[in-house]
Amino acid sequence: MRKLTMMTAAAALMAASTAVKAEDVEVLHWWTSGGEAAALNVLKQDLEGQGIGWQDMPVAGGGGSQAMTVLRARVTSGNPPTAVQMLGFDILDWANEGALADLNIQAGLEGWDDVVPEALQQFAKHDGKWVSAPVNVHSTNWVWANKAVLDELGIAVPTTWDEFVAALEKVKASGKTAIAHGGQPWQDATVFDAVAMSTGGPDFYKKAFIDLDEETLGSDTMKETFDRMAVIRSYVDDNFSGRDWNLATAMVINGDAAFQMMGDWAKGEFLNAGKQPDADFLCFRFPGTQDQVTFNADQFAMFAQGSEVGKEQAALATAILSPSFQSAFNVVKGSVPARTDVSNEAFDACGKKGMADLKKAADSGNLYGSMAHGHANPAAVKNAMYDVITAHFNGEYDSATAVDELVTAVQINK
Ligand code: GAL
User: Fold this and answer.
1) Distance CA 166, CA 162 (A)
2) How close is the Cα of 76 to the center of ligand 1, in Å?
3) Ligand 1, atom 8: nearest CA belongs to which residue?
4) How far, in Å, are 57, 207, 226, 247, 351 from residue 191 at the CA level?
5) Is the shortest distance between the CB of 357 and ligand 1 below 6 Å?
6) What are the helix (H) ranges across 53-180?
7) Atom of ligand 1 at shortest distance to CA of 36?
8) 400 with 222: CB under 8 angstroms?
9) Phi and psi of 50, rounded to 5°?
C-alpha cells in the first residue's frame, strides 16, 4: 500500500510540476561575496531555465550567524522563506521543531540515499525523512597562498607546524603580512578547527569538539592549541579586527599577504578574480592535517508551507541534486559535490584535490564535522566555543584561562 501511495503522490507531483509553471522561490542565504554570488548565479540560472523565479534574500555575514538570526525572526513572525541555506546541526534543530518540509518523494525518485555520503545524510535527514537538499561539501583545514610571494621568498609549502612558523617568520621579516585574517568569531574558530586538529590529531579533535569530553577539553593539548593560536595571532596585520573573510582573501590575491587559513570558499574568490591554482595561488591542507578533513556542507532546508512539499521546493531540491548542477556550481564555489557520482573532470587542481581528500578521509575514518561551521555540535555549544576562542585571540585570556573558560562554557551549554 505504501509504495502505491508514494507512486500516486509522485505522479500527482510530477503532473503538477509539468502542468503548472512553478512560482518564485524565496531563498535566504549568506552568499554575498563575489565568488559566492558567482556560484549562486549558477543555481538562479538553472532554476530560471525551469521557469522558477528567484526571490533573493541575502543576509551578509560570513559563516551564517546573522542569517540564522534573521531566519528565526521570519519564522517567529509566521513568514518563513521557501528555502534557507543552512549548516549541520541548525538543520536538525529546525527539523526537531517540525518546521521543515518532507522531501522523501524527490529523494526516493532520484535515489539520494545511494549517492549522498552518510556524513551529509546525518544532517539532511530527520526521523528517516529528507528535510534538506545538500548543495556541496566544503572543508575548513585549508591554507591559501600567493605563489609569487612564496617564490620570491624561497618558501616551500610547509608540511609541519614548525615549517609553517618558519615560513610565517620569513614573510614577516620581508615586511609583508604573513597571515591575512578577519577578526570575527567565526573566522577565529575556523582557524581553530585546523590548529586543534594539527596540534592534537583526529582523536583529540573528535573527543574535544564532537564528544565534548571534559578531560580532553581541559587537557594540556588544548592549552598547546591555544598557545599556537597566540602564535598565529602574532602573524596577522594590525587591521585584522572585524575584517570580512573575502577582504582577507583579497590581500592574498593581491600579494599583500602570503597566507590565509580559510575554508575552500576562499577558492571561489581567487577564481572570481581570474586567478588559477598553481599559477597564481597554492592550496594545501593546514600543516599536520594532511590526512584529515574537517567538513561543512551547505544545504538548502525547505520550510513547510503546508502539508505537502511545495512544487517549487521540490523543483529546487531536484535542481540542487542534479549531477550537472553539482558539477557546475561546485567548480565555481570552491567546494566539492554533495554526490559521490559526479566526475572531477570540470574541476581545477584544488577542486580535484578537495574531492580526492574527501574520499580518502571518508574511506579511512578521517572525516570530521567542522566545529566552527556547525557540524560538530548544536549552535549553543558552537557559539560558546566561539566566545572563548575569540576572547583568547584578542588577548582577553591567556591560554590556561582559555582552557578553563572552554570547559566551563561547554558544561553550561551542552
Ligand atoms: C560557510 C559556508 C560557505 C561560505 C562561508 C563564508 O559557513 O558553508 O558556503 O558561505 O561560510 O561565509
Assistant:
1) 6
2) 24
3) 298
4) 28, 18, 11, 16, 20
5) no
6) 65-76, 88-96, 104-110, 112-115, 118-124, 147-153, 161-174
7) 10
8) no
9) -105, 10
Assigned C-alpha cell, 27:
531563498
Give 315's DSSP letter.
H
Choose one of 31, 137, 261 to mutate for the ligand 1 pocket test, by most ligand atoms within 8 angstroms of C-beta. Answer: 31
For residue 87 and ligand 1, the question of a CB distance below 6 A is answered with: yes
Would the CB of 296 count as within 6 Å of ligand 1? yes
CA distance 392 to 396: 5
**193 CA from centroid of ligand 1 (Å):** 14
How many CA atoms does the CB half-sphere of 265 hold within 13 Å? 29
Nearest residue (by CA) to ligand 1, atom 11, is: 63
Q: Please list the residues that pair with 257 across neighbouring strands.
A: 177
Exposure class string for 150-171: b at 16+ Cβ within 10 A, else e: beeeebeebeebeebbebbebb
Q: Find where cell 609549502 sits.
A: 157
The owner of cell 529546525 is: 94
pLDDT tens, per residue, the chain with 414 residues: 445 455 555 555 444 444 334 468 999 999 999 999 999 999 999 888 888 899 999 999 999 999 999 999 999 999 999 999 999 999 999 999 999 999 999 999 999 999 999 999 999 999 999 999 999 999 999 999 999 999 999 999 999 999 999 999 999 999 999 999 999 999 999 999 999 999 999 999 999 999 999 999 999 999 999 999 999 999 999 999 999 999 999 999 999 999 999 999 999 999 999 999 999 999 999 999 999 999 999 999 999 887 778 889 999 999 999 999 999 999 999 999 999 999 999 999 999 999 999 999 999 999 999 999 999 999 999 999 999 999 999 999 999 999 999 999 999 999
CA of 64 to the centre of ligand 1 (A): 7
Residue 76 has φ and ψ, to the nearest 5°, of: -60, -30
Residue whose CA lies nearest to ligand 1 atom number 1: 63
Task: Write down all domains in the chain, each with its CATH number in brackets.
Answer: 2-136+298-364 (3.40.190.10), 142-294+369-413 (3.40.190.10)
Q: Whose CA is nearest to atom 3 of ligand 1?
A: 265
